[in-house]
Amino acid sequence: MPDDLCGQSGQHRLRRGAIDTLSLVPAHTARPGGRLGSLVYGQLKEKLLDGHYMAGDRVAVEELKAEFGVSKQPVMDALRRLNSDGLVEILPQIGCRIPVYGRRETADYFNTFASFEGVVAAIAATRWVGDQVDELSALNTRIRNDDATSPGERTHRYRVGNRQFHSLIHTMADSRVIADVSRRMFDLADLLINTAGRPFPLADAVPARADDHDAICAALQQRDADGARAAMELHIRSTATLIFSRDPPEPVA
Question: What CA–CA distances, in Å, run from 205 to 37, 155, 242?
Fold first, then answer.
């Protein structure tokens, strides 16, 4: 693997309006070795999923070294892990970039993802216990009522809240293997949402997304496995359309 794995400084393009939601770890406070690489991995992954880069952008090692205040090795370790996750591409003799997927590939992914999450929702409808659905509804109310103003902040807060929402459904399904597979699929979904099409495509869609969540909650509350599956599949399949639409959705009155 070449030393200039991720290109030269200045070759990547940060998305305008993106926010820095990370607390960078100075080199003198971080633990050495693999621990430091894990910290860089976690923080860089959050930047990728929040849309700080666009599809095709080059990611430069020297810039990351300066940004995170670390040596080259932790950056390289983090990039290799992200490459294994499918969140960056390491191209021999070329460098490292954000993956590029077209409309058809993106639609294929969200159709596949929708089918998987639909099954999870159907299982959850038969297994949830106690006040889990009430907790899910309360979480969705917080998602709907978030008062963030900038597109970048709205995108970040929705992404975090949405992952919590779906994670609770995975908890209802009570299957560790489902939760692990779904986590990996959600990572790629978030990357596609925030890099593949127009900037911050879900920033103005939060009310409609929360409506989708309400439909999922209603089906879960009724222990309607078929209804939960259908509501979840519709919710996720609609994402690809939002990613590539030219105009933001009409505001909900």
Answer: 35, 10, 8
- Residue 34 is predicted with a pLDDT of 64
Q: What is the four-CA torsion angle of 25, 26, 28, 34, rounded to 10 degrees?
A: 40
Query: What whole-number distance in Å separates Cα of residue 248 and Cα of residue 235?
Result: 17
Question: Which three-class secondary structure state does DSSP give residue 245?
Answer: coil
* Count of CB atoms situated within 10 Å of the CB of 253: 4
74 and 174 inside one domain: no
- Total domains in the chain come to 2
Largest pairwise CA distance in the chain: 57
Q: DSSP states of 168-199 as a string? A: HHHHHHT-HHHHHHHHHHHHHHHHHHHHSSSS
Instruction: Report the DSSP beta bridge partners of residue 14.
Output: 53
Per-residue model confidence as pLDDT tens digits over 26-39:
333 344 456 888 99
pLDDT in tens, 76-108: 999 999 999 999 999 887 789 999 999 999 999
Q: Please give the model's pTM, rounded to 2 decimal places.
A: 0.81
Q: Which residue has the tokens 């993802």?
A: 113
154 and 77: one domain?
no
